[in-house]
Amino acid sequence: MIDHINALKTSWYLSPPWGKTIPPVAVNLLERVFLRTTRAFGYCCGIQWKHECWIYSIDCGKEILHATQNQIIGTGELETLNVQKPAFVLGQRVILCSHDKGTKQRLILGTALVNNSWFYIVELMSPTLIKTPTISNRFSLVGEKSLVRIKV
After folding, report:
1. What is the pLDDT of residue 129?
2. Least crowded by CB within 10 Å, which of 14, 77, 129, 145?
3. Which positions of the chain have pLDDT values less than 50?
4. For the segment 109-131, what is each residue's pLDDT rounded down to a tens digit?
């Protein structure tokens, strides 16, 4: 007998929110950028798909600001930090090791540099049809050791 619930969840987790083609990013991770809103320079320390577009996390030294591609200008220069390249790329299919029940396959929906380590944004749970009184975040930052690459 087919487990329809798990089949539906697998389909949900592996359906990219951006559609068939992943939109290009405006700047690369660790790229130096100019923030139009604050008229300051920083570097891109994270990218996440949210609200139907890429949201960029910009490290400005004393704070991290979030911006859309229209609010930043890339310089093409990379920040020289002593960190390895991210192990996974945006849109990549992975297995979430630490999730105990149901389907474990997920898509990388974002990448963030936190304390010189790369973390990846994945959807932990599918949306519910019933509104609940508690607010829960369906997305989470997950470390590299909690993910396994899938060869497609």
Report:
1. 60
2. 129
3. none
4. 999 999 999 999 998 776 666 66
Residue 141 — left, alpha, or beta (φ > 0 → left; ψ -120 to 50 → alpha)?
A: beta
At 20 the pLDDT is 83
The amino acid at residue 146 is S
How many alpha carbons lie under 13 Å from residue 76 in its C-beta half-sphere?
0
Sheet holding 147-149, edge to edge: 105-107, 93-96, 147-149
The reported pLDDT for the residue numbered 66 is: 97
Q: Judge residue 50's burial from the number of C-beta atoms within 10 Å of its C-beta, 0-12 exposed, 13-18 middle, 19 or more buried.
A: middle
Strands annotated E in the chain: 31-35, 40-50, 53-59, 64-67, 72-78, 93-96, 105-107, 110-114, 117-123, 139-143, 147-149
For residue 94 the two structure tokens come to 């992975």
Terminal CA-CA length for the chain:
26
Q: How far is CA 144 from the centre of its chain?
A: 13
Q: Give me the torsion for CA of 19, 20, 21, 27, rounded to 10°.
A: 30
